[in-house]
Amino acid sequence: MSYTQELLREKFPAKQDVVTEITNLEAILNLPKATEHFVSDVHGEYNAFDHTLRNGSGNVKQKINENFGGRLTPRNIQEFATLIYYPEDKLAYRKKNVATQDELDQWYLNTIARLVEVLKITATKYTRSKVRKAMDPNYVYITEELLYNDQQELDKRNYYNQILHNLVALHQADEFITVTCYTIQRLVVDHLHVIGDIYDRGPAPDKIMDTLMKYHSVDIQWGNHDIIWLGAVSGSALCIMNLLRICARYNNLSIIEDAYGINLRHLSMFAEQNYTDIKAFRPKTIEDSEVISADERKQITQIHQAVAMIQFKLEGQICQRHPEFKMNNIVLLDKINYENGTIKIGDKTYPLTCDCFSTIDPKDPYKLTAEEEKVTRSLLDSFENAAKLRKHLNFMMDKGSMYKCYNGNLLFHGCIPVQKDGSFQLFEFDGKKYQGKGLLDFFEKQLRKAYSEPQKNDDLATDMVWYLWQGPLSPLFGKHAMTTFARYFIEDEDIHVEKKNAYYNLRKEEWFCRKLLNEFGLNADEGHVINGHTPVKKGSQPIMANKKMIVIDGGYSKAYQPTTGIGGYTLLYNSYGLQLVTHHPFTSKEDAIKNGRDILSTRRVVNQELKRQTVADTDTGREIKEKLQILRNMLADYKQS
Ligand SMILES: O=P(O)(O)OC[C@H]1O[C@](O)(COP(=O)(O)O)[C@@H](O)[C@@H]1O
Ligand SMILES: [Mn+2]
């Protein structure tokens, strides 16, 4: 007897228990498929991300429109939607702007009744037990009495009205409204996929992680920016330097110090002693509100140089350690003529636009100075011991993977490295060759190993995690090289170019996407490949390859909004099919609450199911069917005995 069989026997010892469970599972199979929500490239933009979650990519508003369109004016619909997104803030705002207690009480009564209506339509897709789990435990009884009361008979109607009246009279209205709004948010989306790049560039990745940790159901496909954070706590000094460099570049060092409590004093003092103010290393400020003092700017600029130089030195060391990485093109410090300020790359010589090489010994350019060694060591210790960061990243490891096959679709952040003809590129290592799905599995194994041994700093697994950040065959990166050094020091833009893997041309072709789906054991007639990573530029299409490929770089990153011209894309997959949602940029939470400003979004149907999908058509459905088979066998045994 299998383990599952044994468990089921224990759980359902009597014949009647088995019959009840079969009936229950059969009923679940017939419910409509629950809604999946896909987001990606959130890049620390907590407020915009939080808004997308609260409004379910426009799903909450759609439910309200379906039910109240014509009964409420568009302004009232928006007001009501904003209440569901931000119940606490909207209630406070409403209470401040009301003339009399009677007006407020009437508003409470109307609002509770409307919320129960919305709850009713969002709950129809689920079993009673699942809906109950989405409720606040303190309000289960009252909510169920309101929810399952059909009000057709006068007595029932009176009963319903009395509950409403009591909620207001007993001063429970605020709390009931708040918890019901969250129950609705939770039911509108059943499962969330985050297709990578939660970290870097934006100000609050920590808050995004806190939100995800509270979210009812989520999986994460790691992005290249997440990898440097995972690498940092896995003991990779190079990953630490890269993430500090990006934080300095985007004026986000407070994430390290304030959000994660990692002290940068040692680094800062070292930077102050060795570097001056150089334009190329000043922080980018995206928002007008981000005005910083001259002193502060200078300090960040100095830190930026200090970590960049340690990074370039460590890159030289790692590439020499691992010729199999084939990354010699980024080893550049020995190509510099430190006297005349030029660099020779290939057979071309370029002038260097600035000089911050005081810590480099031209005879041994990749050697860290004693002080750099100390700074690096202390950063490694701090990252290893940063409790909150580890808590967040434990969650990311737990819910995350290199790729995910889910309800027939294939989800990953960047690419599957391929040659121009579409054949998988080979990563050769230790006498073995890895490609396609096997390559992703190999890298995932290395990351899990490195993460579980943070005290090891220069073992192969730790170096591999850094490779995932910028290696030419990294599925998360997908470019021939990262031209970081050139972008700081060389004017000629030709040398800044990072060539994309052939994957990005081929993914426009249907045959190629079918090949990918087959490689991962999925049905190519029904599945889709869903990617993040590359901002969809103005005029480009996010849906490709006869709808087999969908790119949803969420476009949350403000730095990229001028290129995309929009606030980004998200995707919904409900019982009717897949819908791509295009968002306008988010303004602010205050604007949403006071002026009812939502992220405007438009929906486009990617594919429409011929027959409405039910739970039976999903991965969960397959598991239920297997369980049903066992239960039926058990029932047959009962009949025979
Ligand atoms: O201009 P920035 O922010 O330094 O970033 C440029 C770097 O970011 C990358 O585009 C990687 O980040 P993305 O995954 O967000 O594209 C590199 O290829 C490039 O070198
Ligand atoms: Mn990316």
From TrEMBL:
Asked if the keyword Manganese belongs to this entry, the reply reads: yes
| Entry-linked SUPFAM superfamilies | Metallo-dependent phosphatases (SSF56300)
Q: Which Pfam families match?
A: FBPase_2
Which EC numbers characterise this protein's activity in its record? 3.1.3.11
Reaction equations catalysed? beta-D-fructose 1,6-bisphosphate + H2O = beta-D-fructose 6-phosphate + phosphate
Please verify whether the record's keywords include Nucleotide-binding: no
Its required cofactor(s), as named, are:
Mn(2+)
The text of the family note is: Belongs to the FBPase class 3 family.
Entries under HAMAP family matching the protein? FBPase_class3 (MF_01854)
Per its record, how is this protein called by name?
Fructose-1,6-bisphosphatase class 3
Give the species.
Liquorilactobacillus aquaticus DSM 21051
Give the encoding gene's name: fbp
